[in-house]
Amino acid sequence: MKLNLKYIIAVSVLVGMTGCDDKIEPFETAGSTPTPVAISASTVQSEALPGEIKLTWTAPQEDFAYMQIRYNDPLQKKEICKLVSKHTTEMLIEDTRARFGDYSFFFQTFNAAHQGSEVTEIKAKSGAAPSTITEKSRTEKKLEADQLSTNAQEPSEGPIKNLIDGKGNTFFHTRWSSPQIELPHYIQVDFKEAHEDFAIYYQNRTDNTWTSEGRPSVVELQISSDGKTFETVATLSGLPSAHSTEYTSDFIMPGKTFTSFRFNVIATSGNTKYFNLAQFKFYDVEVEIYDPETVPLD
C-alpha cells in the first residue's frame, strides 16, 4: 500500500481542532487498506498536572494513517476532537479541573480510507487548577509612638518615634556606640487589634552626607499573637542602600492573624552592626482570591 505523504501531513496539522469529521482531508490510496488496530489501553498513561492532563501512549505496531481523540470538556460544555498523526505519542490537555473527577478520552485509529478501529476509552484526572490572588486595596495603619519598640536603640540619637513623624530629615538609628549589640536588630509594632494580610513601606535615611552603610539588606518580617514568640512569614533581600530610597513590599499573606509585628534586620549594607531608617509604614491589605476549583459554574 502506498500513501501520498502530503495528505498525511494535512492530517497531522489538525491537532487542536474542536471538530474532526469536517476537517479530514482525503487520502490518495493505492490498493487495499487494512483495517486499523485499536490502541491498547495499557499503553496509555496519564499525568495529573496543575489545571492540565498529560496523555502519553505507545502507538500500535500495525500500520494506520491517523488517530482521533475525543473527550467531553465539562468546562466548555462541548465535545472536543483532536487529530494526531501516527507519529504523535503525547498530548497536553489544557484548562482542565480536578473538580470534575474522571475525564473520559476515546482513542480511535483510522486507515487512509477513514475506516476506524474499535474505540479505546481511557479515564484520567486533572490536577487542581491553580488559584490566583490579586490585591484589591491597601490601607495605611496609623501608628503611635507607644506602639513602637526595639532591642537596640542608639542612646545618643535617632529615637524610634522618628520613624512615624512624617519628616524626611529625621531618622531612627539602632545602637552604633559601645557596647554594640550583635544583629539582628528589630523594630517591633504592638497593635491593639488583630491584623492579617499586610505590606510595609520604609524610606532610607535621607542625609546624603553619610555613606550608604547601615541600610537594611536582609530583613525578616515576623508576626506574633502574644508579643513574645515570633515567626518569620517573609524574608526581604536585595534591598536598596542609597540614601532617601523608598521601598514598598508586595503583600504578605501569613494565613493567620497577629497582634505584634517585627521588622527584623539580620544583615546590612557594609556589614555594620546597626541600621538606620527615616520613615516606616504598615498597611492592611485586602486581597481577592479566585479559585477555579470552587468558583460557581454558569
Rg of Cα set: 32 Å
CATH class of the largest domain: Mainly Beta
Please, how many domains? 2
Beta-sheet strand percentage?
35-45%
The CATH H-level homologous superfamily of the largest domain: Galactose-binding domain-like
Helix content: under 10%
Total strands: 20
CATH topology of the largest domain: Jelly Rolls
Shape designation: elongated
In whole angstroms, how far apart are the ends?
A: 51 Å
Largest beta-sheet details: 5 strands, antiparallel
Task: List segments where confidence is low: pLDDT < 50 over at least 5 consecutive residues.
Answer: 1-18
Structural class: mainly beta
CATH architecture of the largest domain: Sandwich
Number of helices: 1
What is the ordering of alpha helices and beta strands? EHEEEEEEEEEEEEEEEEEEE
- In the sheet with the most strands, the strands line up as 11-13-18-15-16
Task: Please tell me the overall pLDDT.
Answer: 91
Sequence-ordered SSE layout with sheet pairings:
Layout: E1 2-3, H1 5-12, E2 29-30, E3 44-49, E4 52-57, E5 66-73, E6 78-85, E7 90-94, E8 102-110, E9 120-125, E10 132-141, E11 148-150, E12 172-173, E13 185-195, E14 198-203, E15 216-224, E16 231-237, E17 246-248, E18 258-268, E19 276-277, E20 279-290
Antiparallel strand pairs: 1-2, 3-4, 4-7, 5-6, 5-8, 8-9, 10-20, 11-13, 12-19, 13-18, 14-17, 14-20, 15-16, 15-18
Question: Can you put this structure into words, describing what you see?
Answer:
The protein is an all-beta fold and 298 residues long. Mean pLDDT is 91; it is low at 1-18. It has one helix at 5-12, and strands at 2-3, 29-30, 44-49, 52-57, 66-73, 78-85, 90-94, 102-110, 120-125, 132-141, 148-150, 172-173, 185-195, 198-203, 216-224, 231-237, 246-248, 258-268, 276-277, 279-290. It has 2 domains: 2-129, Immunoglobulin-like (Sandwich); 136-289, Galactose-binding domain-like (Jelly Rolls), CATH 2.60.120.260. The protein has a 5-stranded antiparallel β-sheet with strand order 11-13-18-15-16, with no helix packed on it. Strands 6-5-8-9 form a 4-stranded antiparallel β-sheet. The protein has a 4-stranded antiparallel β-sheet with strand order 10-20-14-17, with no helix packed on it. The chain has 1 helix and 20 strands.
